[in-house]
Amino acid sequence: MENSVRKMSPFGAVLNNTTSLFAAGAIGLLTTFAAPSEADAQDNSVKVGFVTFLSGSAAGPFGVPARNAAELMIEAINAGAVPGPYNTPGIGGSMIDPIFVDENSKQKNADYLKLVEKDGVEMVIGYVSSGSCKAIAPEAEKAERLTILFDCGTPQIFG
């Protein structure tokens, strides 16, 4: 695992892990599509939920690298250290405020709803397992919250 992140360029690191690249891409989508609401502009942050395996057997190959990639990208975006035209701090001046959730949970739907309803996230990025993706897709549709399922192994969520 020592080669999973290698120092380079002013952007901090080159990611060598496919899952990490997916997470970085999802964060990139955030900079393109997320617009801060009036409430976010007042507190100068936009809350984003990140769900991935932080414990269990999938944490090492999937979850921890994805979380690390998200943290690197959030740091770079908040600092305005990404390539133009996104090289201004934050998203529309609002800093990304991440909330990380362990996908290795028996209550995936409740965890998702907590992010959306109680924590007030603007969007959710995550989910690795096919079972999680199939369970969360209908919840995301009902909640009408932007949810990026970044590493699902099933096409059944589109059926």
Write the layout of secondary structure elements.
Layout: E1 5-7, E2 13-15, H1 18-33, H2 38-43, E3 45-52, H3 59-79, E4 95-102, H4 108-118, E5 123-126, H5 130-143, E6 146-149
Parallel strand pairs: 3-4, 3-5, 5-6
Antiparallel strand pairs: 1-2
From the spread of the alpha carbons, the general shape counts as globular
Please, how many domains? 1
Order of helices and strands: EEHHEHEHEHE
Structural class: alpha/beta
Helix content percent band: 40-55%
Question: How would you sum up this structure, described in words?
Answer:
With 159 residues, the protein is of the alpha/beta class. 43% of the residues lie in helices and 19% in strands. The chain has one domain: Rossmann fold. The strands form 2 sheets. Strands 4-3-5-6 form a 4-stranded parallel sheet, sandwiched between helices. Strands 1-2 form a two-stranded antiparallel sheet. β3, α3 and β4 form a beta-alpha-beta unit. The chain starts with a strand and ends in a 10-residue tail after the last strand.
Keywords:
43% helix, four-stranded parallel beta sheet, alpha/beta, 159 residues, Rossmann fold, two-stranded antiparallel sheet, disordered N terminus
Brief summary:
The chain has helices spanning 18-33, 38-43, 59-79, 108-118, 130-143, and strands at 5-7, 13-15, 45-52, 95-102, 123-126, 146-149. It is of the alpha/beta class.
